[in-house]
Specification:
- The structure is a single chain.
- By secondary structure, the protein is of the alpha+beta class.
- It is 27% helix and 27% strand.
- The strands form 3 sheets. The chain has a 6-stranded antiparallel beta barrel. A 3-stranded parallel sheet has the order 9-11-12. A two-stranded parallel sheet has the order 8-10.
- Residues 1-15 have low confidence and may be disordered.
């Protein structure tokens, strides 16, 4: 469940500036709100490489302020269970959570004497520099029409799928009643990411999620992600996927392509697929 500003563990001053990030603890409580960040987008690195992010203009809860300004002994007795950096969209709604391991330094912020600038260890799930345009598109506004992802290719399209998969509002969807008919626009299914983006929007509308790999697709068809089986899926321009997803599946009992396995999974869950 997304945190709200009502969950602060102390009363903070009302600010006119809208935060872009929230600092979240392991119990999903807000430890602070931040106006901006530097080092958000990183170049691809080895997972063991030490990467930091600078969080600017952070207004901490009293608990966080006491921890940062307290003695070493105080911090040992009162550990701060910082867990996530929650990115907010332009409407102030939670978008994605990123893992943060610890705060390694801080200083008073030049933006406001009540605020701090924090240096934290950035997690391995940080967004890639090459996909900045994709993230900024989502930050301005969530998708309001189908196929906005279609203009992206390769790693950028994969990153769009990553956002869809991790979008706080898409984690669990109430299922619509069985027996419905869904229309899948297959004209842009030129790779695996394209299929999952297309099926996600066919089931849950623009920006919708319905799996990111074969196992996840199978899980979504068990319920809890916007659809209850049986239902009918009308797959428009299916020949695009038949050609682009012709990669053989290794270890299969008989020759099968990625496209064939998708159809088998649908069949196994009583989804009637109409290929067009």
């Amino acid at each position: 469940m997304a945190s709200s500003l009502d969950s602060w563990d102390s009363v903070m001053p009302v600010e006119s500036l809208r935060p872009k990030f929230l600092l979240i603890d392991e119990d999903d409580r807000i430890l602070g709100q931040c106006l901006d960040a530097e080092g958000l987008f990183v170049e691809a690195t080895d997972e063991d490489e030490y990467v930091t992010i600078e969080l600017l203009g952070c207004l901490p809860s009293q608990r966080m302020r006491d921890y940062l300004t307290g003695s070493k002994r105080y911090r040992q007795r009162n550990p701060l269970s910082l867990e996530w950096l929650r990115m907010l969209d332009a409407a102030g709604e939670p978008l994605v959570d990123f893992w943060l391991s610890e705060i390694v330094d801080w200083r008073p912020s030049a933006l406001d004497p009540l605020r701090m600038d924090l240096i934290a260890v950035w997690g391995v799930d940080s967004p890639l520099a090459g996909a900045r345009d994709v993230w900024e598109c989502w930050l301005v506004a969530r998708p309001d029409r189908l196929n906005l992802w279609a203009e992206y290719e390769g790693a950028a399209r994969d990153e769009w799928l990553t956002i869809v998969r991790r979008d706080q509002r898409e984690l669990r969807r109430p299922d619509r009643a069985p027996g419905r008919t869904c229309d899948l626009d297959g004209s842009h299914v030129t790779d695996k990411a394209g299929f999952y983006l297309a099926i996600g929007e066919a089931i849950n509308g623009p920006g919708g999620y319905f799996g990111c790999n074969l196992d996840a697709l199978d899980d979504c068809l068990c319920g809890g992600f916007g659809a209850r089986t049986p239902f009918t899926l009308i797959w428009q321009d299916s020949q695009v996927a038949r050609k682009s997803l012709a990669t053989p599946i290794e270890g299969a009992d008989e020759p099968s392509t990625y496209y064939d396995v998708i159809l088998f999974i649908f069949q196994d869950h009583d989804v009637a697929v109409v290929l067009r």
